[in-house]
Design goal:
Strand order of the largest sheet: 3-2-4-7-1-8-11-10-9
Number of strands: 11
Structural class: alpha/beta
Order of helices and strands: EHEHEHEHHHHEEEHEHEHHHHEE
């Protein structure tokens, strides 16, 4: 059920985005704490808020940053200087950033804090991700790596083959996703890869997991992102009369039976005795966000989606309701998702241009929405942007979608 407006005081479940900041993505060889702290300071400066005025810090976690508990709000609070703020820490793999935003929003709406800093950062390994150490025979992620040898690119390749078989997508369709996103990333000062790419270059790059080439798959990166969120009342007192607002955060889980393969599981739920009822998992993520925000796909100005591979970006077009099932390649070919199109997707350049800095990427998506809705995105600005959505997904059924409005 959509939430109703309360007139001049804003939406009852809105929180203001006062500040957004990032540490540029790349391979810098330094601690994730440095990237997150730099992003936090940039966000605080953008918000015009003093660090001592922040009442809570929510950190998005990664297992690569140390033992559980180290990669927490307290890690960044200590680096910024102890000042008594409450802290929280969230781990949901690639959905960590969205759940951190959801936690911060809940604290604000509950009246526990007026100003909350959300931070995520990563120092990722070179190459593709591997499982964390130790034996975990009841962990599907560990099993698909160790028993099947199914790395992330293996999964991406299987998913691409599925789209080719079911919907008739082609290698040329996949390549055009990379061409589009590289052109946007070339305009983004925070992107790791800032050069345009041709379809011929994609086709000529090495095969990693058939049918996907190297340029079809996102890299792993270092980087950080941060947001300063506040209550609408604090924003007004602070002089922000018309801030970007977060109107919905969706962190749903799948519904049985789930009949489409999702990483890390290599088999579907059994539907032998139960017919699928309702949307797929990915489409349910966006549906929950739309319902909470009181908007639909037709209201969107832009979308930032989780393009682990070029084929997965096409899947998100359908799961967000931007087009009918199987029509993503047609939508792309029409130029609808390119800058200047009906619904630009990944105007930031996406993970194709940034790479994965896991705890930061869902936060970075909201940073991009913030700049776009403010009209301060520079050469990559989407004209007249008023409503944006993010789409992301973490392991083990962690949905992730945020709706921001202006």
């Amino acid at each position: 059920m959509a939430l109703a407006a309360d007139g001049g005081d804003g939406m009852t479940a809105d929180v203001a985005v006062l500040g957004a900041g990032m540490h540029p993505w790349g391979k810098w060889g330094r601690s994730f704490v440095e990237y997150g702290t730099a992003a936090a300071r940039t966000a605080l400066a953008d918000a015009g808020v003093e660090w001592r005025d922040v009442q809570s810090v929510v950190g998005a976690d990664t297992v690569r940053g140390g033992y559980p508990g180290h990669v927490a709000g307290a890690t960044f609070a200590k680096k910024l200087g102890w000042q008594g703020a409450r802290v929280a820490s969230v781990y949901a793999a690639c959905a960590s950033g969205a759940q951190a935003i959801g936690t911060a929003r809940a604290q604000i709406l509950a009246g526990l804090a007026d100003v909350v800093l959300v931070v995520g950062a990563d120092a990722a390994p070179k190459g593709f991700f591997r499982p964390a150490g130790g034996d975990r025979p009841d962990d599907p992620d560990w099993l698909r790596f160790r028993v099947l040898g199914a790395t992330n690119p293996t999964y991406f390749g299987l998913y691409a083959r599925r789209r080719m078989a079911v919907h008739g997508d082609t290698l040329e369709d996949f390549a055009q996703v990379k061409v589009k996103n590289a052109a946007c990333g070339a305009l983004n000062p925070n992107a790791r890869y800032r050069k345009t790419v041709s379809a011929e270059e994609v086709a000529a790059s090495a095969v990693v997991a058939d049918p996907l080439r190297l340029l079809d798959i996102c890299a792993t990166s270092d980087g950080g992102a941060a947001l300063v969120l506040s209550s609408m009342e604090f924003a007004r007192r602070h002089g922000a009369s018309d801030p970007v607002r977060i109107r919905a955060v969706s962190t749903v889980t799948p519904t049985f039976p789930n009949t489409v393969l999702d990483l890390p599981d290599m088999a579907t739920d059994s539907a032998a005795g139960v017919e699928p009822d309702g949307p797929s998992f990915r489409s349910s993520i966006a549906r929950a966000a739309y319902e909470e925000a009181g908007v639909g796909p037709e209201d969107l100005s832009l979308a930032e989606v989780y393009d682990l591979s070029t084929a997965l970006e096409l899947q998100w077009y359908e799961d967000l309701g931007l087009c009918a099932e199987g029509a993503a390649a047609k939508l792309l070919g029409e130029g609808a998702t390119a800058p200047g199109g009906r619904i630009p997707v990944n105007a930031s350049g996406g993970l194709a241009s940034f790479g994965e800095a896991v705890p930061a990427q869902a936060i970075a998506q909201v940073c991009e929405l913030t700049w776009q809705l403010r009209g301060t995105a520079g050469a990559r600005q989407v004209a007249g942007a008023r409503v944006g959505i993010t789409a992301n997904q973490g392991l083990f059924g962690h949905g992730s979608s945020v709706v921001a409005v202006r």
